[in-house]
Amino acid sequence: MKLEGTGLLVRIYIGESDHWHGKPLYQAIVEFLREKQIAGATVLRGIEGFGAKSHLHTTRILRLSQDLPVLIEIVDEESRLRAVLPELDAMVTDGLITLERVEVFAYRGTAPGPSPADQ
């Protein structure tokens, strides 16, 4: 896939304990995006944060949390991402979704070669 020029960055802020059909929501979102052949997504786990309910989620020793902040960043062409936004919106029942125009400078990947077991 070739991706260059103006693109769209989607950021999804959720909690680590959020689920979708029995699996972690972040995992379900990434799997959905791969099925839709979106250019790329990255899941980042935060160490502290709060959202609409102002409930603090933190790794600090006195306030151990099982629900740390999770950020999913997705980049692709705007039209491709806008096409999947309704499904993402349905999946994220508690969180925040933001959109931002970005300029893609480079998007590269090397084709997978033979594994050592194949040689």
Describe this entry's structure for a reader.
This protein is an alpha+beta fold and 119 residues long. The protein contains two helices and eight strands. The strands form three sheets. A four-stranded antiparallel sheet has the order 4-7-1-8, with helices on one face. Strands 2-3 form a two-stranded antiparallel sheet. It has a two-stranded antiparallel ribbon with strand order 5-6. The mean pLDDT is 86.
Number of domains: 1
Distance between the termini: 28 Å
Helix content: 10-25%
CATH level 1 class label: Alpha Beta
Observed structural traits:
four-stranded antiparallel β-sheet, single chain, alpha+beta, 119 residues, globular
Quick take:
The protein contains 2 helices and 8 strands. It is α+β, with helices and mostly antiparallel strands and 119 residues long. The radius of gyration is 17 Å and the shape is globular.
Topology:
Elements: E1 5-15, E2 19-20, E3 23-24, H1 25-35, E4 40-45, E5 48-49, E6 57-58, E7 69-76, H2 78-91, E8 96-104
Antiparallel strand pairs: 1-7, 1-8, 2-3, 4-7, 5-6
